[in-house]
Structure formats: C-alpha cells, structure tokens
Amino acid sequence: MIERRNHRFSRPANSGAEEPVSRMNQQEAESNQVNGYTPEPEDDDTPSGNNGGFKTVTGVLIGVVVVLVGVLAYIWVSKQNLVDELDQEKQELTQKMLDLRNDYRDLSSDYATINAQLDSSREEVNQLIERIQKTEATNRAAIRRYEKELGTLRSIMKSYIVQIDSLNTANKKLKADVASARRDLSESQKKNEELTQTVGDLSDKVAAGSVIKARGIYMEGQRKNGKKTDRARDVFTLATSFSLIENDLAPKGPMMVYVLIWDADGNLLVNPEQPTTMVKGDEEVTVSAGREVDYNGAEVDVVLYLKNMGKLSKGVYSVDVYTENHKLGTAELMLR
C-alpha cells in the first residue's frame, strides 16, 4: 500500500521548475498584446554601416559639385576680365587713331604735292578708324595689325612734318637768296659763285624729295592654297606686301623692287629654283625675291612671294624691302 501511494503521486524532478516559467512567458505575451506592443525581433546584422557610407558618398558628390561650380565661375570671370581688357585696348587704339586724324587735319603746307599726299594719308586714317570700329576686340591679330599701321601712319606724318619744315626753310632761304641776288646783281663773281652753291644745295634737297618711299610693309605666311597661317610647319609661301607712296618728284617708268627675307637664325631665305640678284653698291647680291613695277608717280600696291623654302623653324622672321637705289623699310613675322 505504501509503495502504490508513492508511485501515484510521484513527479519528474524538473516539472515544478518549468511550469512557472512557461506561465510567466504566457502572461507576458498576453500583456503585450493587450497594450498593443509587439516586440521587434532582435537582429545583430542591422545595416547601420550602409547609412554612414551613403552619407559619405553624398558629401563627396556635393563637394565635387561645389568645386566644379567654383571652377566654372572662375573661368567665366577670367574670360570676362580678358574681354574687358581687349575692349579697353580697342578703345585706346581708336582714341589714338582719332588723335592722329586730328593731327593730320592740323597739318598743311604750301606745296601741292605734299598736300595731295596728306589727303591720301587722311583718307587712309579714316578708313583705318572704320575698320577698327567694325572689328571685334577679341580679334587680336587684326588689332595688332592696326597698331602697326598706326605706327606707320605716325612715321609718315613725321616725315611730312620734316619735309614741310625743310621745304619751308629752303623756300625762305631761296627767296632771301633771290632777293639778295637781285639787289646785288652787279657784285663780284664770288657772290655769284655763292649763289650757285646755294642753288646746288636746293637741288640736292629736291633730289632728296624725289626719293620713292613705301608704307604698310607687311609679311605673312601662306599655305599652299594661299590661306594665311602663322604655323611654321604649314608655311609654303612668304608674301611681302607694301605700297609705293605717291610722289610727283620721283622718276617715272619701270623700276625693280626686291625683298631680303631672314629666318629666325639670321639666314637669308632664297628660292633655289629661281635665284634672284640685285646690284647693291658696286657688288651683285642674292635676294629672296624681286619684280618689276611700273611706277608713274601715283601710289601702287606691290606683293612679292617667296616659295619652296622647305621646312621652316619657329621664331621671328624679318624682311628688308629695297628698290634699285635705296632701302624702303623692314617688317617682322612671328612663326610658331
């Protein structure tokens, strides 16, 4: 009897401990459902690191955009400053040309030949002002060419002033000598010889005034198709252009003009297929090119070409222009 009772009421050793825990878990779950709370599952692999990486990439992209905006703003400001500087240069060049036009207007003489030359130069100044005003300030090549032409016109005006002053002085002296000769017609042979010497001096001045001069000397490089270029490797022809100035005192008829072109190393450039020479002093010298011009006292435009020079190097090239009797002037060309 005792064994049967003990067997009837025996339990597993762990059953008493597990039952309270199970009840507690069940009660906690019911309480959470009543309060509307659902516990989130714990996950140790939450991608919090991905959020940080996204923010870093975003920050870098924003920084790149800011830098690009800054660079574009700097380029725009620099370009605008350059345009403003070029506009200022154009305005200054235009003002210089206007001042030169006023100087030409104030210049006059009592000599028909010089007055005709002055009229021609005045017209050239007016045309140059019109070209400058129509040219964009960003066209640097044209602006630099106009600056050179401005310098040429200034030099021509100075030569006019020298000629006018010289002729005025000579004219006054001539009048004084003629008056003195008339008053002293009966004086000795010595005074007659002095008068003859004076006339000879004046003749020399007239001869000096008869010298043909040139203006607008300009040299440019050209491709095979005749288009202008300043790249040494593309140059096939060097073209030198200028104008022989009107001069009624100069001898009329055919005359030879020559050019001597020097490369960046000071070597004379010649066309081996068409060698040309000129007489300079008592010797015959080789020149780059030459041609005959029919000069009748009026202004005439001249262009001389030098072709087939082979490969040219970069640097500054210069050209000297001559007639049969004297040097007309020089010009330079930069090849890159």
Walk me through the structure.
52% of the residues lie in helices and 22% in strands. With 336 residues, the protein is of the alpha+beta class. Among the domains are: 106-209; 214-335, Immunoglobulin-like. The strands form three sheets. Strands 4, 5, 8, 10 and 11 form a five-stranded antiparallel sheet that branches. Helix 4 runs antiparallel to helix 5 (140-183). The chain is elongated. The protein starts with a helix and ends with a strand. Residues 1-22, 42-46 and 201-208 have low confidence and may be disordered.
Keyword list:
336 residues, alpha+beta, Immunoglobulin-like, five-stranded antiparallel β-sheet, four-stranded antiparallel β-sheet, 6 helices, 11 strands, 52% helix, 22% strand, elongated, disordered N terminus
Secondary structure blueprint with pairings:
Blueprint: H1 2-8, H2 15-34, H3 48-106, H4 112-134, H5 140-183, H6 189-209, E1 214-222, E2 228-229, E3 237-244, E4 253-262, E5 268-269, E6 276-280, E7 283-287, E8 289-295, E9 300-307, E10 315-323, E11 327-335
Antiparallel strand pairs: 1-2, 1-3, 3-9, 4-5, 4-8, 4-10, 6-7, 10-11
Helix pairs in contact: 3-4, 3-5, 4-5, 5-6
Distance between the termini: 128 Å
Question: What's the pLDDT, averaged over the residues?
Answer: 76
Specify the overall morphology. elongated
| Named CATH topology of the domain at 214-335 | Immunoglobulin-like
**CATH C-level name of the domain at 214-335:** Mainly Beta
Helix content: 40-55%
Strand content: 15-25%
Q: What summary fits the major beta sheet?
A: 5 strands, antiparallel
Low-confidence stretches: 1-22, 42-46, 201-208
**Structural class category:** alpha+beta
Helix tally?
6
Describe the oligomeric state of these chains in a short phrase.
single chain
SSE order: HHHHHHEEEEEEEEEEE
SS elements, strand count: 11
